[in-house]
Structure formats: C-alpha cells, structure tokens
Amino acid sequence: MKRLIFVLMAILGYFSADAQSAKVQSAINYLRNGKLDKAKENIDAAMTNPATMDKAKTLFYYGNVYLNIYMSPDEAYKNLAPDALEIAYNAYKKTKELDTKEEFKNELQINTLIIAEQFFNKAVGAFEETQYLKARDGFMAAKEVNESYGGIDTLSTYYGGISAEYGGDTTTALNLYQSLIDAGYKEPNLYASVANIYKGLKQYDKGLEVCAKGLEMFPEDFNIIISETNLYLANGNSEMAIKDLQRALEKTKDNPTIYFAVGVQYNIISDDTTKSETVRQESFLMAEKAYLDAIRLDSVYYDANYNLGALYVNKVASIVEKANALPLGDPGYDPLKKEADQMLLKAIPYLEKAASLNPEDKNALISLKEIYARLGMYEKLKDVDAKLQE
Predict the structure, then answer these.
(1) Which of 89, 102, 336, 370 has its CA 20 to 30 A from that of 161?
(2) Across residues 306-323, what is the average pLDDT?
(3) CA 62 – CA 378 distance, rounded (Å)
C-alpha cells in the first residue's frame, strides 16, 4: 500500500513538472504569435514553480517575454510591466549562470546586447529631460551589460560620468572619468570635466595636475586651457590666469567674455598695492584695452561697460591720493586734479551705458552721482537722484 502511494506521488510530481514545462512552451508559442499578455501569464506561472523556475530555458524565455514587452509599440503591452527591461536583464544574467551546456549562448549574447542598447537609449532620453541621476543609472546599466562580455564600454562610461557630474554625484563622475583616463581614452573634454569637478571641490592642485596631463596630449585644446584658467582664477593666481587667457585669445579672437576675463585679472593687479607703480600702471592699461576689446565685440556687455567705468573711477582715487600728499601750494597739484577730472569724464559714457543696460543695478547710478557732483554737472545729477529714489 505504501509503495502504491509513493508511485502515485511520483506520477503526480511528474505530471506537475510536465504541466509547468507546458507553461514554458505555451509562453513560447504566445510570444511567437505576439500575444504578450498570454506569454507573460504562462512564463510567470513557470517562474513561480520550483520544478521549472531554475531552468535555463525558463529563464531565457522569461527574459525574452519581458524584453518584448519593453520594446512593444503597443502601450497596453508595455504597461504590463513598467520595469520589464530590468526584469529581462536579470533573467538573462541568471540564464548565463545556468546554461552550462551553452544551449542559448548565441541568442543570449545577441539579446543581452539589445538590452544594453535599450538601457543606453533610455539613459539618453532621461538626460534630455534633465533627469541626470536617472540617466547615470541607465548608462551604468548599459556599461555593466556590455562589459559582461569583456572590454571597456568607453561611450557608456563617458556619458555616465557626464550624467553623474550634472546630477551632482561628483564621486561617481570622478571614478568614471578616471577609469577612462587610465584606459587612455582620447577625449580632451574628459580632462576639462575632471578639472572643473576639482575646482568645485576646491582641490585646485589636483585640478591643475589633470590639466597639465590633458595639455600634454592636447596642447591646443581650448576647453582644457579655460579649465586651467578657472583653476588659477579660483586660486587667486592672476599672473598664471592671464597667461592662460592670452593663450585662449590665440584660439579665438571674437569672444568678448575672454577679453573681459583678461581685463578683470589685469584690473586686480592694477589695484594691488603690493605691486610696483610701474606694474600697476601697465596693468591698468592692459585692463583698459581688454575691456575696450570686449565692448568692441559686444557693445551691450553690461559687465564690461561697468568694469571699465569703475576702472577709471578707481584710478581717480589713486591720483587724488597723490595730489593730497603734495605740500600746500605745490604746482603739481593742478595737473593731477585735471588728470583726475579727465579720468572721470572717460568713465561717464561707460557707466551711463551700464545704467541703461541694467536699471535695477544701482551701483552704476551711485558712481555717476558722485562724478556729476564732482564735475558740477547738476542737471544730470538731478536725473540720477530721481532714478535712485524710484
């Protein structure tokens, strides 16, 4: 009697396993006929049964069903599983582990590479929608899939780094960028990006090291030069910043922003009282020229107009200081006063232009008020007073 029970149990187990195998075959048939809802229903059932859930064939077709759901143009099918792509990938990974006879090797590799392509495309879409961390995850997934078959997926790694950088994940960005540098990836923007991250982290020396390496490989690259410039600017090294800016100007002579940046650095040196009078005067003239070049290229450049006007006003302060240091009745006083007034007259058109370009900024108006009062330009003084009280 006991033997009969055991036989019956064995028969029932056989029929149960056979029934679940039939579920896999049904899923395959439904998949071939494009009936993805039915295919999903059957393959899901096979995946919940111990008799079939750990078989390579079940997992392979489980991946196939979900990959087709993800790629289906029919929204009704796509909505069957919002995370179908991830499910398909995990199924293929498990298939690769279990397929010891390599029955599905070729198809598995093809389908897995399709998965990588879909991850990449999905990441591109997220990036375009400024969902940078989501894009990072997509590119990282594409990288993982492609690299599971060997080699380095430089494209996914690079775009993953950019996405991480834009999303504020500087740690991941640096790791990905560094892996590309170590692999000898020939992309100059890679070095500029790493330098910019180090600048944001205030690790200026590391940033400058990266720029030096980048410029060894790409000595004429504009973006690396600008990144190095920004590091020098952030580090307060005006002299080195100017050298880089001059190099940048050799690459492009029609960029007012660079001329403005040159002007700012020479302006800083001209105001530095630790420098000699000769250096300060030379720097003043270079700052003036750079600002004028910026305005020549862009006449409505507010910052260039305002800074040039302010440059002249600040120069007046040093001239007045000299005049006041002279003994009473010294014949050198009047020429210095005249020079100061002439400098103020030079400042007026640029400050007036700045005030017209940005009426909300009161700094230009305040400077103009002081100039009009000093030069006795009372009608203009009334106008600027009225604007300041608005």
Answers:
(1) 89
(2) 88
(3) 86
